[in-house]
Amino acid sequence: MQFGMLRVKxxxxxxxxxxxxxxxxxxxxxxxxxxxxxxxxSGKSTLLKMMSGLLQADSGTVEIGGRSIAxxxxxxxxxxxxxxxxxxxxTFSQTAYQTVTLGRYPHQTGLFAGWSDADERAVQKxxxxxxxxxxxxxxxxxxxxGERQRVFVAQALAQEAPVLLxxxxxxxxxxxxxxxxxxxxxxxxxxxxxxxVSVFHDVNLASLYCDRLLLMDxxxxxxxxxxxxxxxxxxxxxxxxxxxxxGMHPEVPKPQITLLPAKEPExxxxxxxxxxxxxxxxxxxxxxxxxxxxxxxxxxxxxAGWYRHFVNRNVGADxxxxxxxxxxxxxxxxxxxxxxxxxxxxxxxxxEDAVIGEYGPPDAPxxxxxxxxxxxxxxxxxxxxxxxxxxTINTWVIVNGHLPEEALIQGMITATEAKAKAMQTEHVLxxxxxxxxxxxxxxxxxxxxxxRGNRYPYAGTATELGKAIGRGVFECTAEAIRRYRNRKADFxxxxx
Length: 496
Ligand SMILES: Nc1ncnc2c1ncn2[C@@H]1O[C@H](COP(=O)(O)OP(=O)(O)OP(=O)(O)O)[C@@H](O)[C@H]1O
Description:
This is Iron complex transport system ATP-binding protein. With 496 residues, the chain is of the alpha/beta class.
């Protein structure tokens, strides 16, 4: 086993009958840094205390350089392992210099051990590294919390042990001194092969400086791996019960998290279903009890925003206006829809023929609603000049889930691809070119998400959400086209 390598096997222990740390195992390669993360009370300090020999483990072993720590004498152990905090209570009436010299105790050998040049050099170097040389003769009790912390770290560094165990080393330190301390420790690991295990409260500092991270949850290992593997939004949210967003550090490829402010407690009962849609000759209406994040190309309320009312209004084949937006606004107002909370589309197709279906997870489905009038179908690939006739397929995709903007946009792509495929399968032709149409001239699309419950980071066709949207839009569009054609055939029969 490598000098300085640390191996923890099945370590269990605590302060009474019920262990606080349960069956924790991991290894730390010499010259690397392991960060221990976890919520308050998850057992981080207890684990470190057992590794430091300050607390007897109930079972399991800690090996350093291939030897169990139980086999080391107190002094021999201190030559192998430096621990912070250490001897803090005793050192308050001492100067910074005297405190740091205590780090040399394990190197004092023989009956008449003296203070050597090597001891003095180690102390000076450690004090310089921690920037506390100027406080050499200041008594610890007259120093600030951060200054004291740096003195204690200097003491641990002066010990020149191959393994350094730190409990919250950046406690009390301002950002410049956090950086100085962690840069120093990091350099000792990389350049001098120091093995470091450190408890962190700050996930971002741990991610930035450590090679590997150990995430504790209620006394057990919730995750161990590289920062990329451990600093994961979902793992963080689950273990810390905090809302976070994970992203990359701007200069180094290490993940960092940002806290998201508290949200109103979610009522997970609020699921939008097919039954929430009302369909009449005049319009299709979805009245959502909660605001949904919607992105659409609607006539009214287009773009992105939070909305509760979704309207697809029948305007009849002879509808004509110079300003559809204003006309729609007036109609919505007169009909009693709250304008700031409403997105509205229009169609000449019969809204009674709207096809509504539920797809994906039954407890939180993806609800698709399509109306199709394909009299003026268009093959978009040809770019043919033509008179602008309204012909409209209006598509809504309602997701019971949480979607970032990226997924909302991917959902629109997936829905558009599925619509084009439905046109092909139903063999809808562009009357001008005779080729298979891809849509109609004034199609509109809306995708809305409740932004609660299931998280869907993406909505491309490779994802479960993309599959539900693709299948849903395809099936509903194909059925809407068939209903349109049946109605048209009935109408032609009647008028003959
Ligand atoms: N000396 C002690 N005697 C009895 N119980 C203790 C003692 N120290 C800690 N505990 C208990 O052990 C559990 C784990 O504490 P520990 O200090 O290891 O957690 P931690 O993860 O370091 O927490 P924090 O982030 O708050 O520092 C806690 O429930 C705590 O109350």
